[in-house]
Specification:
With 267 residues, the protein is an alpha/beta fold. The protein contains twelve helices and ten strands. The protein binds acetoacetyl-coenzyme A (CAA).
Length: 267
Amino acid sequence: MTAADIQERPQNEELVRVDFDDRVMIITLTRPDALNALCRKLISQLNSALDQAENDTRIGAIVVTGVGKAFAAGADISEMKNLTFAEVAEKDFIQPWERLSRCQKPVIAAVNGYALGGGCEMAMMCDIIYASDQAKFGQPEVTIGTMPGAGGTQRLTALVGKAKAMELCLTGRMITAQEADVMGLVTRVIAGDSLMKETLEIAHKIANFSAPVVRMIKEAVNDVSEIPLVGGIRMERRMFQSTFALDDRKEGMTAFLEKRPAAFKHR
Ligand code: CAA
């Protein structure tokens, strides 16, 4: 693909599909001819979908997945090939990708196939990663003369430790879902034909809990890497105490004692 081809893409070309299933938004990367490579237009459409989810109180959880044999095979190499340092620095190339990691609502990656380079980094920006038993993970940037640029060296190291992250980033080796599971990179491996069904079951479960409580839990877990333990424990206790201001906290405890399902109102 040349720069001219990119210009010629129709403006309304759909590279991301958005579906709704009760309180769950399903975002599907739909660029199978390029293994869902993450071009600028795809990232822009992804970010619009995330903004929509965040602004809609009817959405309680987000699932990100891909069509075909890839979750995403990384940043779009044909789009990057001719870029200069001056251009990528001036535009702060890759920065818009970070939108996913700033999502306040829980995001589950359903990794259906290749999650390489930026695709692996995108999965790691999500809160939970369910991997099909056919999925493959890796940071192959070194093999094309560059390095991870969307958090790969940082998030992968935090998840799997220095020794394993070094090997993956320095060799570009691809690993199976099973190996990724053993390393702690993914939450769980699921048989490919059950991936979406099981992912959606969990997404619905989370989406139907009290939205403000879910948001606080996500924030507290994410704070682990930024706050020393003593401060983190104190912060968590204050957040726990603040759930006592919610109708949902009263309803949840009352429902338990009355032996009935809770009816959360997300306030
Ligand atoms: N960018 C653009 N196009 C890509 C792509 C990518 N990252 N990955 C695959 N494609 C395209 C191929 O060029 C090919 O297009 P054509 O049919 O037009 O030739 C099509 O998708 C199918 O790919 P393959 O024929 O290569 O499929 P395969 O089954 O033989 O191999 C693969 C699959 C091992 C995933 C291989 O496609 C591959 O290695 N892809 C590149 C992976 C990669 O290096 N990713 C890192 C990108 S850099 C990055 O992400 C930086 C960052 O941190 C932000």
